[in-house]
Automatic annotation (TrEMBL):
Transmembrane segments: none annotated. Residues 26-130 form the AB hydrolase-1 domain. It comes from the Bacteria. GO terms for molecular function: hydrolase activity. InterPro entries: AB_hydrolase_1, AB_hydrolase_fold, Carboxylesterase_BioH. This is Alpha/beta hydrolase. The lineage of its organism: Bacteria, Bacillati, Actinomycetota, Actinomycetes, Kitasatosporales. Keywords: Hydrolase.
Length: 256
């Protein structure tokens, strides 16, 4: 396990690492998740094995610290992720981000273009104020006080599925709420606009079961490689790991 300081309170963001050759692949989890849980099996696939791989837990999640005064907005998460890549000597990394982690990856690539050479985004959040769901919009519908101390965290754990619950229960409730609020607030310009303005290779994965991707044609026109993953919902790495591996490797998705 390795760590780097972030924020103003001496807190540490932590990651685990697999040694290997070539530019690092950096895996970033979604809201209420943890990177090794969601991505270690992907990086270990024979197609991807042999590359240096970092599994980063964002502030307030997994094994990273959860400072009380930290804001947990997308820009702050991105700056914490930048501290990891700086400490690890991993400039020019391929950043693989799921959901909120994908939004963080976009902001990182915009703020620190030296650190990201390619993005692979699995259903990354692109727009502020998404429709109400059990996820970020549901969490952010509570006040921070009600979520942390008024039963909102417990109610949310009861609503989400068993896969998400397994890691969400390990996240700090305050960090979870502030991260969700940050996703709802988004960025200026939006994550979508930032993604379209980037010039590095960008792949956006959308699960077939999640429905159509809004603004797909516009993303594609800006150079984003939009891929629909057969038989997958939001958790593409679990629903169709072979297709997820192929996208990271830059290969066509397997047909069977």
């Amino acid at each position: 396990m390795r760590q780097a300081e972030f924020g103003t309170e001496g807190a540490q963001i932590r990651w685990t690492e697999a040694e290997g050759r070539g530019p690092a692949r950096v895996y970033v989890h979604g809201l209420g998740s943890a990177s090794s849980v969601y991505h270690a099996h992907i990086a270990a696939d024979a197609t991807l094995a042999g590359r240096r791989s970092l599994f980063v837990d964002l502030p307030g999640h997994g094994i990273s610290d959860r400072p009380a005064a930290f804001g947990y907005g997308l820009e702050e998460h991105a700056d914490a992720l930048a501290a990891v890549l700086d400490a690890a000597g991993a400039a020019g990394a391929e950043v693989i981000g799921h959901s909120m982690g994908g939004a963080v990856a976009i902001v990182l690539a915009t703020r620190r273009p030296d650190l990201a050479s390619r993005l692979v985004l699995a259903e990354a959040n692109l727009d502020p104020n998404p429709p109400r769901t059990a996820g970020s919009s549901g969490i952010a519908s509570y006040t921070e006080r009600d979520f942390v101390r008024g039963g909102g965290f417990t109610e949310t754990l009861e609503r989400v599925g068993h896969i998400w619950r397994a890691t969400m229960r390990l996240a700090d409730p305050t960090a979870l709420h502030r991260s969700a609020a940050g996703l709802i607030r988004g960025t200026d310009p939006t994550m979508r606009r930032q993604l379209m303005d980037l010039t590095i290779p960008r792949t956006y994965l959308m699960g077939e079961l999640s429905g159509a991707l809004q603004g797909c044609a516009e993303l594609a026109a800006s150079g984003v490689d939009v891929v629909t993953v057969a038989g997958a919902g939001h958790n593409i790495m679990f629903d169709n790991p072979a297709a997820f591996v192929a996208a990271i490797a830059g290969q066509p998705a397997p047909t069977s």
